Amino acid sequence: MDAEELLDEAAARDATHPLAGYRDRFVIPDPDLSYLDGNSLGMTPRATVHRIHEVMNDEWADGLIRSWTKWLDLPLVVGNELAPLIGANDGEVVVHDSTTINVHQLLHAAVALRPDATHLVVDPGEFPTDRYAVAAVAAQHGLGVRTPPPGGTLDDLDLTGCAAVVRSLVDYRTARIADLVGATARAADHGAIVIWDLSHAVGAIGVDLPAAGVDMAVGCTYKFLNGGPGAPGFSFVRAGLADQIDHPLRGWFGQHDQFDMDAEWQPKHGVGRLMIGTPGILGLEAARCGIAISAEVGAERLAATSTELTSFGLDLVDRLGLVTVTPRDASQRGAHIAIQHPAADDITTALAQRHRVIADYRRPNLVRLGCSPLTTRFTDIARAMIALRTEIDQRA
Ligand SMILES: Cc1ncc(COP(=O)(O)O)c(C=O)c1O
Question: Which domains does the chain have, with CATH numbers?
Fold first, then answer.
């Protein structure tokens, strides 16, 4: 391995990359830190620091209760700002609560649309929160939970009698992209709804929900959208379907006339009926700043950059003799690379302590390297791969 050569190659890519300048829009705590964890917690946009001060001083401290006039609809306003990143239209997205709550809510809504259903479907390897939500909602409605047969996939399951499938578009471990169009259509053929979890997809790959015929989706804003720790999640419901849905998590923010205090529950038109209680305005404004940068760049350029970064990384995987479970076909992968090694846990710790490379360990044997299109440098990827080779060699 000629580390210098690889680093020079990476530096040359950074110097000419059209999105490289966007990194300056983020707080860089240490230029020598290679942060490859933007798929867990995205970096801090400078605009967020400024905007949060502004909201604190001008809107909260000075404006006090008067500011609620501009805050009341903020979940829908920010939803419209996020919408183009997933191909959605105005009024189809609301930014609110956590992804977990949103999965619960949409599962209840999907079950209510299929009163004759017998079960829900989720993959046993799905992100835990999605599995827990499926199990909980199934139990509440007296439904079963079906999973693929051993060695099989979700695509092998007969969906007759299924109300809903919860499925990640980008697998949190391997980065494999599911067949959005095919799986949505297969479910629809059986009257089932796929609730797509876009947490590892939004801001990283191109997604066009309406073109794929998607009914419902959720996702988070604190990964590739750089929304901040605990930033609210989002829900998408296709136009036309939103007015038909009902869910038990009712609150006054989802009520048609919120300040008619005597009114019986009459939900807002559209996706706004998913709002529950008072939104956290600071978190929402922070999320808004991150979303704005991604929206400015556009899903297409974000996706192209993700592909360039992961292609470069996978090339280094081969040149350095590392092992990956991430698909080689660019159209099949999201914006992270998972390196497989039995000592992955120990190696992830060593990367941070000895090489200033921050990655994620995912059980049982993966080191996960997030390639955020707005903040990750080719140099970061090269440094990570060189460090991985060094650490693996030391354990041989
Ligand atoms: C696929 C997926 N869904 C959901 C979540 C998290 O949900 P929440 O924001 O409610 O904690 C994550 C977090 O990493 C995730 O990877």
Answer: 3-45+298-394 (3.90.1150.10), 72-297 (3.40.640.10)
